[in-house]
Amino acid sequence: MNADVVRSRQRPAAPVRLFGERISFRIRWRPLVVGLLLLVLCLAALVLAASVGDYRVPLGDAARAIVGEGSPMAELFVTRRRLPRALTALAVGAALGVAGAIFQTLTRNPLGSPDIIGFGQGAAAGAVTVLLVLGGGTAEATVGAFLGGLTTAAVVYLLALRGGAQGYLLVLVGIGVSAMLVAYNNFLVSRAELSDAKLATMWVVGSLYERRWPEAALMGAALAVLLPAALALQRTLSMLEVGDELAGGLGVRVSRVRLAALGVAVALTAVATACAGPVAFVALVAPQVARRLTRSTGPGMLPAAAMGGLLLLVGDVVAQRLTAPVELPVGVVTGAIGGVYLAWLLLREWRSGRG
Q: Which terminus of the chain is more solvent-facing, meaning fewer CB atoms within 10 Å of its CB: N or C?
């Protein structure tokens, strides 16, 4: 595939001119409309998440409580309990969506997401080790999850580096490392006391249970730093999709860009996993669905972020109410959704290969 082919696949953007000809830029309307629609759906899901629960708050009261104008009872349930959890879900989903978009672009593979490659399981291994081996608490487990994700990313990258750290090598090495980490996590959980195993399982599966303002603030700060960095790399990453040789010929420093993008994606994954555990398949599904909706080439990070936030927030609402009053970990719900999507994706690839 060459640059001319890539350009021919992109829909022309509509020119917009302001003040005569002095200011001119182009807008791709479909991604813009899809992005705004996803943003509206995220806001609606946020109000819904603040409303539903054992004590139901009417949607209007929930919306007023979010902006600080609700009744004392509504503010008790919404502001102190449900809103920080919902905001954490949105931020974690957005981080995973952007990380998935970066990984899928780097590997040029729809299966190239952090959970498939094993970074999520690495973060879970760090948290479980702190809880069950070192005897730490939840705060220490959060630090362990962050360090575990970074360590796993470094191991996968170094193992794949001998082959040039190409996309398919990252996926293959990551799948192997992920399998070993799953076995390690299961081994530790199986040997733990029941109470400790129950807490550790939440880190292995992924959960937003009892997430409060500290987690929401951490995710907000992480996105404030890492999302602009990801957006700054978006245009250069799009050029990598034509292949390393052609991108290098166009002036892209391929190794430096790949390493920088990998660092941003790993940091996003590590922080998200430190706050919610290895939530399955959001990083895989969100970028793919967003790209199909926008019909655009390139990473499409903002639509992927909005789609990731929407998927995780809706999944968390379902996890809370599906078996109420018993709450499911959100990773169970996203895993079920992602498993169906993955089966469809593999079937589609198999059919296209036969054709």
A: C
Please report which residue ranges of the chain form alpha helices under DSSP H: 3-9, 29-51, 59-66, 72-77, 83-107, 114-117, 119-132, 138-161, 167-190, 194-205, 213-240, 244-249, 254-276, 282-294, 301-321, 330-354
Q: List all residues 6 or more positions away from 189 whose beta carbon is below 8 Å from its beta carbon.
A: 128, 132, 197, 200, 201, 204
pLDDT, tens digit (0-9, with 9 covering 90-100), for 248-264 = 666 677 778 888 888 89
The whole model's pTM is what? 0.85
Task: Sort strands 23-27 and 14-18 into parallel, antiparallel or unpaired.
Answer: antiparallel
Residue with tokens 């109470």: 195
Q: What is the CATH number of domain 90-350?
A: 1.10.3470.10
**Residue 134, CB-side half-sphere exposure with 13 Å CA sphere:** 15
230 vs 112: CA distance, rounded Å: 17
Give tens-digit pLDDT for 94-128: 999 999 999 888 888 777 788 878 888 888 899 88
Distance (Å, rounded) from C-alpha 224 to C-alpha 91?
Answer: 10
Q: Which sign, positive or negative, has the C-alpha torsion 171, 176, 181, 182? A: positive
Tell me the C-alpha to C-alpha distance, in Å, between residue 172 and each of 69, 108, 112, 126, 265: 52, 13, 10, 22, 18
Q: What is the DSSP letter of 133?
A: T
Rounded distance between C-alpha atoms, residue 230 and residue 237, angstroms: 10
